[in-house]
Write a structure and sequence with these properties.
Number of domains: 1
Shape: globular
CATH topology: Rossmann fold
Bound molecules: thiamine diphosphate, iron/sulfur cluster
Strand content: 15-25%
Number of helices: 10
CATH superfamily: Thiamin diphosphate (ThDP)-binding fold, Pyr/PP domains
Strand order of the largest sheet: 2-1-3-4-6-5-8-7
Distance between the termini: 48 Å
Length: 275
């Protein structure tokens, strides 16, 4: 396999959880490649934020898109070429704030893409404003007295919206996270991984995360159990909460007919226009 590294200098803060996520992604892509997925058949998209810089550090094709639109660009890529495996990287502000509707509709449609959500509990790139996932009491640039809003619960939210693979990982457990990413990419339908990560500059919750994580032992039997485990206030459970089969969007839309296979050549398009 060719090298996944790029020539870009890495500008993440020392100790940022994004490093663990990048390592996990590289491991996952290497495993997928060893199992037969060509690198040319993988496309990535990102929103804007510290998480989005992962685009610069991975030698893969894709679109470094607009803030909050990672799943929209991923959906477009998948619909244009369903043969690609498309992975989108989003921030908690990006995918559940600015881009909330794009995230929820991609899940609702069971679009066959993967969303890796970098949950650092704040807007890192813009220096620590509170995000839809910030805890009550979070003190940042825009909430100097502490956030008074309850955060979204991403796993229950995405379960309810229609994601057919829902999991949670931790940036400090890259082998476990790599395994989740491989499962998510191989899953047919919308796959979602919430990745807990510290932002060492504005929300350094590494010690807290590390003390609260616990592994799920088995796949929860039903949606109710999955929501209960994902919402546990003492432990942050890691693992797969849901894995279901349901028709994915491009198959319901096209059947076996992939648009790229039936695309007209230039001469045919001109003839059609003339006619
Ligand atoms: C449409 C739009 N609105 C706002 C911004 C400014 N902006 C850039 S990154 C960002 C927040 C990033 O936070 P998050 O998505 O949580 O990612 P992180 O930096 O924490 O990885 C904002 C508000 C923008 N680039 N585009
Ligand atoms: S600001 Fe936070 S999320 Fe961004 S690179 Fe620094 S530690 Fe990481």
């Amino acid at each position: 396999m060719r090298d996944l590294n790029t020539h870009k200098d890495n500008t993440w803060c020392t100790g940022c959880g994004n490093f663990g996520i990048l390592n996990a992604v590289k491991k996952a892509i290497t495993n997928l490649n060893e199992d037969g997925t060509k690198l040319a058949d993988i496309a990535i998209t990102t929103g804007i934020g510290c998480h989005g810089k992962i685009f610069d550090y991975l030698a893969l094709n894709g679109i470094y898109g607009l803030h909050g639109r990672g799943t929209a660009t991923a959906s477009g890529i998948k619909l244009a070429n369903p043969m690609l495996k498309v992975i989108s990287f989003g921030g908690d502000g990006d995918s559940l704030g600015e881009g909330l509707e794009h995230t929820l509709f991609a899940a609702k449609r069971n679009m066959d893409i993967t969303l890796v959500l970098h949950n650092n509990g704040n807007y890192g790139l813009t220096t620590g404003q509170f995000s839809p996932l910030s805890r009550i009491g979070y003190k940042g640039l825009s909430t100097p007295s502490g956030s008074i809003e309850r955060p979204f619960r991403p796993v229950p939210l995405l379960l309810e919206t229609g994601a057919t693979f829902v999991a949670r990982g931790f940036s400090a457990k890259p082998d476990h996270l790599a395994n989740l990413i491989v499962q998510a990419v191989n899953h047919k339908g919308f796959s979602f991984i919430e990745v807990m990560q510290p932002c060492v500059s504005y929300n350094n919750n590494y010690a807290e995360l590390n003390s609260r994580i616990k592994m799920l032992e088995t796949l929860p039997l039903n949606n109710g159990m999955a929501v209960e485990l994902a919402s546990n206030e003492e432990h942050i459970y890691l693992g797969v909460f849901c894995k279901q089969e349901y028709p994915c969007y491009h198959e319901s839309l096209y059947g076996d007919n992939a648009p790229l296979k039936t695309r007209l050549g230039k001469e045919q398009r001109i003839a059609l226009l003339n006619r």
